[in-house]
Amino acid sequence: MHELLSHTLVMIGGYFAIMNPFANTAIFTAITAGMDDRSIKKTALSAVVTALCIVLGFILLGRIIFDFFGITLPALRVAGGIMVFFIGFDMMHGRTSDAHAPAGGGFSKEQRQNIGISPLGIPILAGPGTIAVSMSYSATGNELEIVVNVLVFSIMCMITYLFFLLGEKVEQKLGQEGLKVITQLMGLILSVIGIQIGIEGIFGAISMFEQHHTI
After folding, report:
1. Alpha carbon distance 12, 165 (integer Å)
2. What is the mean pLDDT of residues 141-147?
């Protein structure tokens, strides 16, 4: 029970840091500027539902994907750890990682109708780092841990949706400097999580190598 609680707290910290609802709310309000309230709510819902479907797919099908492509868990953890570390590193220095940033500057009228799916849903909310973290948490977990993973990410999406709806109020309360400080703190947490995932991957690879040569 203690181990499950500890694992759950790590999940919460990891998802909160990499999805960073504070900073992503600033991106959301900038992208949806000029929209009416109905369009803003529709875009916010579209973004979180897109992210939820993509990440849940990887959580539930992670092992099948591993087997199909012949990917080992240590390989995912090393690659995912490096990716998550550099996303966190960029956040610590006040930069938005290219992996979780929209491509291009403005949006045409047609593009604005689908911005909830892209770039908000993917890659801003459900970028490579989020996917790597979710698969790492569920790859070796039992059924209960996978269920907890699904619940934690679903709750994180609900929190993000509320942040999006309260976007302007959140920005006014925190201000640009407040958002910057929070983003840097999230970046520090994310970098540490990335290193931890990478270390687990390296030790896992060493263990697999020793087992292979022992046999």
Report:
1. 21
2. 82
